[in-house]
Design a protein that fits this description.
It contains 16 helices and 16 strands. Helices cover 35% and strands 11% of the residues. Bound molecules: 4-O-methyl-alpha-D-glucopyranuronic acid.
């Protein structure tokens, strides 16, 4: 089963002539009984309008890609059994709706759980053109329009995409163009130094000239390249700090180089000290991005977009919204999500993300960001996402990037209907499992917003002290009396990076939502939660519940009529999830019981 793609069957063995041509082809194959005319209105760009003619036939108007998006919207509606409204207009909320692949030139994928790279092997671009078109269709069918094919950690020879490998990269861009998908490349900030320039200082004229000449060459080959994605001064990557320059100086230099071609510089804000001493109590990692960027608000060029991870740490199960997303009002911003389940179960454990994303959008005022990015969960596996049910994350991300008001439960139901031929009752069962899977995972892993109790480096499975004495700034400091970090004004002061109203909401343990308690506060195990339970009892209860819910999920999934190919993968991954959930439950409960000495009020088994 190839996600919802198996329902789309226009022939992709040759390149579609244009997005409009593809739109009509898809419609005629999938909905042969529908009479639909296309009307190209170039100034409508990516937006589309669907209305009925006097004779009852449908008229689909839009720019070239707008018509394609409109066709897929129609197909999604009809295949999901929903009624076609008499009139429907739609425009994307965000201009760049990006997928960031962390694929390396050697064919490996950093944090990839769906097989090897779709684009690279053996240091070269290496791909199946048919799969590229299928991927273009996968993206277009949910409104995604930018694909960054290489890892933000640019390991040699990925730099050659801008050099010797540019002709092959241009051929790849050609493959994606009819799907309205533009490529983007991650670039190595020190790349000029490969060419005899002794520095990568953004204010150095030779460096500036090198990037201008490179941008001219790259855009001559790929005129619609979306731009460059940059991870600088982060986790060992080169960047402007080496030369005493700030990140506005660093990003604006690249922005000048791509400006003549309409290119963007997407500059990541994942910058922190990854060589922290755990004994250092002054440094609090979640504060780092704000400290580096907030003071630069308004100084970035208009074709720079700061790409900010949704939380201040790194894609944990629960993190507050990054304060930068709320505080940088004069800078173009993109929010970065992660479809790859790095900390959320490696596409072995079920983890449907849309409930988490909806929570983020509730706190993020509509106009604060202009683009959205997500780290890809795709790979060379036949079904693209390893776990067949992980495809729901790609699908719903696309819908949200078009319209963040998309309802979580409708989006999940739509995906189920497009993917499987289930009865309403089975659809309901699967939908309930998918929508609850994030809370379940949260319950059996690190409690109440602490995060990080994972096995270091690989990030699957429990290890409560794995990151406790390490360099990464990710500490919970559990001792026999208390756990968590005080990030209020009395503690590290992190909370002061937020608007006043949020400072009040989160600053007092009595008003702070339970699920964020240990992110913001250091509390004794005897702390009384809002429902009267002690903190330690809540930790035990959540873990036992998380495991019990996983057992119930396993039973529910077993009852569903998945096609054989999916059933096998789903049930073998579910047995691994059950094992993982049991390990987490027992290890976390034992860890806290050994420290606190507190018995479980319900007398369940916790190991001494
Ligand atoms: C691409 C975390 C991940 C790294 C990733 C990094 C980033 O540290 O573990 O694999 O590197 O985030 O987002 O740049």
């Amino acid at each position: 089963m190839k996600a919802w793609l198996s329902k789309l069957n226009a022939d992709l063995s040759a390149a579609p002539a244009s997005p409009e041509a593809l739109a009509l082809d898809e419609l005629s194959h999938v909905l042969p009984d529908l009479t639909c005319k296309a009307e190209t209105v170039p100034e409508m760009g990516e937006s589309y309008r669907i209305r009925r003619d006097a004779d009852g036939s449908l008229i689909l108007s839009g720019g070239s890609t707008g018509i394609l998006y409109g066709a897929y919207a129609l197909i999604r509606l009809v295949l999901a059994g929903e009624a076609i409204p008499d009139s429907l207009s739609s425009a994307p909320r965000y201009s760049l709706r990006m997928i960031n692949c962390w694929d390396n030139a050697d064919g490996s994928v950093e944090r990839g759980y769906s097989g090897r790279s779709l684009f690279f092997e053996g240091g070269k671009l290496h791909y199946d053109p048919l799969r590229m078109r299928e991927l273009g269709r996968l993206m277009a069918s949910v409104g995604l329009n930018v694909l960054c094919i290489n890892n933000v950690n640019v390991h040699f020879p990925a730099q050659l995409l801008l050099e010797d490998d540019l002709p092959e990269a241009a051929a790849l861009a050609d493959l994606f163009r009819p799907f309205g998908v533009r490529l983007m490349f991650s670039v190595d900030y020190s790349q000029p130094m490969r060419h005899g320039i002794p520095t990568a200082d953004p204010l150095d004229p030779a460096v500036q000239a090198w990037w201008k000449e490179t941008a001219a060459r790259v855009y001559a080959a790929i005129p619609d390249l979306a731009g460059f994605l940059v991870k600088a001064d982060s986790e060992g990557r080169p960047g402007p700090f080496t030369y005493g320059r700030n990140h506005a100086e660093g990003a604006n230099m690249l922005a000048d180089a791509v400006r003549p071609y309409g290119g963007k510089i997407v500059w990541r804000c994942f910058v922190y000290n990854c060589r922290q001493d755990w004994r250092d109590t002054k440094t609090d990692r979640p504060m780092a991005a704000w400290d580096h960027y907030a003071g630069l608000d308004g100084q970035f060029a208009d074709n720079v977009i700061l790409q900010i991870k949704h939380g201040p740490f790194d894609f944990q199960v629960r993190e507050p919204l990054s304060p930068l997303l709320l505080g940088m009002k004069q800078t173009n911003l993109a929010m970065e999500l992660q479809l790859a389940q790095e900390y959320t179960g490696h596409q072995i454990d079920l983890y449907t993300m849309i409930p988490m994303w909806k929570e983020l959008f509730e706190e993020l005022p509509a106009g604060n960001i202009m683009s959205l990015a997500a780290v890809s969960n795709l790979g060379r596996d036949e079904n693209y996402t390893g776990h067949p049910l992980a495809a729901v994350n790609f699908f719903t991300y696309g819908l949200l990037s078009w319209d963040p008001e998309t309802d979580a439960s409708s989006a999940v139901s739509q995906w189920i209907r497009l993917t499987y031929a289930f009865s309403p009752a089975d659809e309901q069962t699967l939908s309930a499992v998918l929508l609850s899977s994030r809370r379940t995972y949260e319950k059996y892993t690190a409690p109440l917003g602490i995060g990080w109790m994972v096995n270091p480096h690989d990030h699957y499975g429990p290890n409560p002290s794995g990151y406790e004495y390490d360099l990464w700034g990710t500490y919970h400091k559990a001792n026999r009396d208390a756990v968590g970090i005080d990030r209020t004004a009395k503690g590290t002061g992190y909370l002061l990076q937020y608007p006043e109203s949020l400072q009040q909401k989160y600053g007092d343990p009595e008003t702070c939502p339970d699920l964020y308690l240990l992110f913001y506060h250091r509390l004794p195990y005897s702390f009384r939660m809002k429902d009267g339970r002690t903190l330690i009892q809540r930790i035990y209860d959540d873990h036992f519940e998380g495991f019990a819910e996983t057992e119930a999920m396993a039973k529910a999934l077993e009852s569903l009529p998945f096609p054989d190919s999916d059933r096998e993968i789903i049930s073998s991954r579910m047995s691994r999830q059950l094992h993982n959930a049991k390990e987490w439950c027992d290890i976390i409960n034992t860890f806290f019981r050994r420290l606190s000495g507190a018995d479980d009020a319900c007398g369940r088994m916790i190991y001494d």
